[in-house]
Q: What sequence folds into this?
């Protein structure tokens, strides 16, 4: 007779979920014993790192990731990373072992007494099967829920004695049927809804387009949105808190990233009479700088796959539908109406390259960067050898290959990062949309595992690095060729910025002197360097990205430049 474990493995095989990210405990061993040869187990030294690696893997591959945690303590350790995955809209199935059923009532050691409540509200669905025979069915349901837009993590608690339970003939047949099921999601809007939206765009004197993370995540949406901007002559802004790049930053119509506060954001959109938001919430604000949500005289329409996102928007109308087919229909409708580029949307620099972030970019090998950055000028290097963030990041961009997949967790330097890299191809940038630290170092490992055909460069602050530093061991143990560039300023620079905005002078715990990340990396088995010049930094990045022998960490002392709204 077949067992529950065999039925569970069938479900995972059928869905291509054969990579398991885990940190095992005694309650997980029954699931992992006799581990099949066609599965791959990726070990992380701490559960938050495990979930972060799975997050990066799912984002890079566009598939659903599988996480295996150790009952309640392991789930608790992973909660911050699971919350990040929810914000990232990452399809992820999180499984955790549970004590044997005969000892659940007495709450024996390692019992999770509230298995469906513990992971809330980080997951879309949490469940413990009522019978051993229900495990495969529950797992299949979990996968479907994780993949249903808006995608996100789900949680499944598996009592450890369920896995060896035999299935009778009827139960086995039901499990096989469940494993073979498929659910497809395709939500098209009513034709009149598309026509109405096309009419509003065509009638607007000066419409503007704002794009968000889901444009990069939704299949086909990137190309459709570019076609829309070109057909309708729309200037394009990125929504605040970019977790992905959703429009080519070298495109003539690209204007930059909107600030994440109410009043400054509205000022950026002043003069536009219609704001079309695609694949982003309206809007992700922080800090609180009150004002009007929109400039005077402007209307807003949101196109999203997330009905809850549509419901909670504080302003504007909304259309809930799949992004790519809806935008393609918009392009067709606008073509029939003869909408041509015009108004402010058609304006660009004399060389055909739009100004973004106050600087004009010059294209170079598929990456645009400021012409005055990346050299050891007196303005770029301080007396102690530290580079400015822009000089350092420009050097990193110069050294990285054109097809680099970027992971970033240096929040205080995001404007300089985007100015230096000017990412202009889809699925090339990941930054947690959730605001919690610990994502980058782990996600880079998962992204490189998922896309071994592309070099992965992770730009991480020295403060952020230590939230998931154990990821370095996994990268070294599995010889994963991630390039880590750690921007070291010995402080939580983004908190210094918030301290200014929130008038919180004198707050303790904002500086972190004495860190030596190169020594820590060496202790985990990672080759480490310290770069003090832009030329040396570009060379180290170029050499690291070209090799396949394992991870490399480059520690770069940088000055602190706080962002502005």
A:
């Amino acid at each position: 007779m077949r067992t529950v474990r065999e039925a569970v493995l069938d479900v995972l095989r059928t869905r291509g979920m054969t990579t398991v990210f885990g940190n095992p405990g005694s309650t997980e061993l029954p699931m992992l014993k006799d581990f099949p040869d066609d599965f791959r187990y990726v070990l992380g030294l701490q559960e938050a790192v495990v979930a972060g690696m799975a997050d990066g893997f799912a984002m890079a591959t566009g598939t659903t990731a599988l996480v295996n945690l150790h009952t309640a303590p392991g789930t608790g350790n992973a909660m911050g990373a699971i919350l990040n995955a929810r914000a990232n809209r990452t399809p992820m199935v999180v499984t955790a072992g549970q004590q044997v059923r005969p000892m659940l009532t007495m709450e024996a050691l390692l019992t999770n007494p509230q298995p469906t409540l513990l992971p809330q509200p980080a997951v879309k669905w949490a469940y413990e099967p009522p019978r051993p025979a229900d495990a495969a069915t529950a797992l299949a349901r979990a996968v479907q829920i994780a993949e249903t837009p808006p995608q996100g993590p789900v949680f499944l608690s598996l009592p450890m004695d369920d896995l060896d339970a035999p299935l009778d003939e009827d139960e086995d047949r039901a499990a096989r049927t469940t494993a073979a099921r498929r659910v497809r999601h395709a939500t098209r809007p009513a034709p009149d809804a598309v026509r109405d939206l096309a009419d509003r765009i065509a009638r607007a004197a000066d419409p503007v387009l704002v794009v968000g993370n889901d444009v990069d995540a939704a299949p086909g949406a990137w190309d459709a949105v570019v076609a829309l901007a070109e057909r309708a002559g729309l200037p394009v802004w990125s929504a605040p808190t970019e977790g992905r790049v959703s429009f080519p930053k070298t495109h003539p119509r690209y204007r930059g990233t909107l600030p994440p506060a109410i009043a400054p954001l509205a000022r950026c959109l002043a003069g536009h009479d219609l704001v079309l938001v695609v694949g982003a919430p309206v809007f992700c604000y922080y800090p609180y700088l009150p004002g009007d949500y929109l400039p005077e005289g402007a209307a807003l329409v949101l196109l999203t796959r997330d009905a809850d996102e549509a419901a909670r928007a504080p302003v504007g109308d909304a259309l809930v539908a799949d992004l790519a087919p809806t935008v393609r229909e918009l392009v067709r409708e606008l073509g029939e109406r003869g909408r041509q580029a015009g108004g402010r949307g058609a304006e660009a620099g004399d060389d055909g390259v739009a100004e973004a972030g106050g600087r004009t970019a010059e294209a170079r090998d598929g990456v645009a960067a400021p012409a005055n950055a990346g050299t050891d000028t007196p303005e770029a290097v301080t007396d102690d050898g530290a580079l400015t963030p822009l000089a350092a990041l420009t050097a990193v961009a110069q050294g990285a290959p054109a097809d680099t997949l970027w992971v970033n967790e240096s929040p205080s330097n995001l404007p300089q990062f985007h100015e230096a890299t000017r990412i202009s191809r889809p699925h090339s940038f990941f930054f947690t949309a959730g605001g919690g630290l610990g994502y980058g170092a782990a996600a880079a490992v998962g992204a490189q595992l998922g896309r071994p055909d592309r070099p992965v460069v992770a730009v991480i602050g020295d403060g952020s690095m230590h939230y998931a530093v154990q990821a370095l061991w996994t990268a070294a143990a599995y010889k994963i060729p991630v390039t880590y560039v750690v921007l070291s300023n010995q402080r939580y620079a983004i908190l210094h910025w918030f301290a200014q905005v929130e008038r919180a002078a004198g707050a303790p715990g904002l500086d972190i002197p004495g860190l030596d990340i190169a020594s820590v990396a060496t202790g985990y088995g990672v080759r480490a360097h310290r770069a003090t010049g832009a030329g040396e930094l570009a060379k180290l990045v170029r050499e690291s990205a070209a090799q396949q022998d394992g991870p490399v960490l480059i520690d770069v002392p940088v000055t602190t430049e706080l962002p502005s709204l």
About this structure: The first helix runs from residue 4 to 14. The longest strand covers residues 92-98. Confidence is low (pLDDT under 50) at residues 341-379. The CA atoms of residues 260 and 449 lie 32 Å apart.
